[in-house]
Write a structure and sequence with these properties.
The structure is a single chain. 56% of the residues lie in helices and 0% in strands. With 117 residues, the chain is mainly alpha-helical. The protein starts with 21 loop residues before the first helix and ends in a 16-residue tail after the last helix. Keywords: Membrane, Transmembrane, Transmembrane helix. InterPro entries: TMEM220. Pfam families: TMEM220.
């Protein structure tokens, strides 16, 4: 008795594999846009709201633009905005780690230290 093969032969190699529909990504970007907008809104009572509203507002705008038209991510302005924001956030993380590791935080009691608020 001949053994049946369970492998599937691919007829067309150039056929792209569809992982998700474009509407799934639009829904995910819409959800993240709402999340970033709400995160920017709650920063109003922060001591430095402009900085944090920009940190959350730029990704909100990028996600909103992808909800409207997913082809905008190929635009050079969209790419450079995302890259510059990513680099600025990475520098902010590195600066915070450097400040933490250099011992600039004198108080070890979190109730006495309020820079993180």
């Amino acid at each position: 008795m001949a053994e049946k093969s369970t492998s599937v032969a691919i007829q067309d190699i150039n056929f792209p594999l569809k992982v998700c529909s474009p509407w799934t990504w639009r829904l995910a970007n819409g959800f993240m846009a709402v999340f970033f907008a709400l995160s920017a809104y709650v920063q109003i009572n922060d001591p430095d709201p402009i900085l944090w509203m920009l940190i959350y507002g730029i990704p909100c705008a990028l996600c909103c633009s992808l909800v409207v038209s997913s082809s905008l991510q190929d635009n050079i302005v969209w790419k450079w905005t995302a890259i510059i924001h990513l680099v600025a956030c990475i520098f902010g993380i590195l600066y915070s780690l450097r400040a933490l590791l250099k011992g600039q935080i004198d108080s070890k009691n979190p109730l006495n230290y309020e820079e993180g608020r």
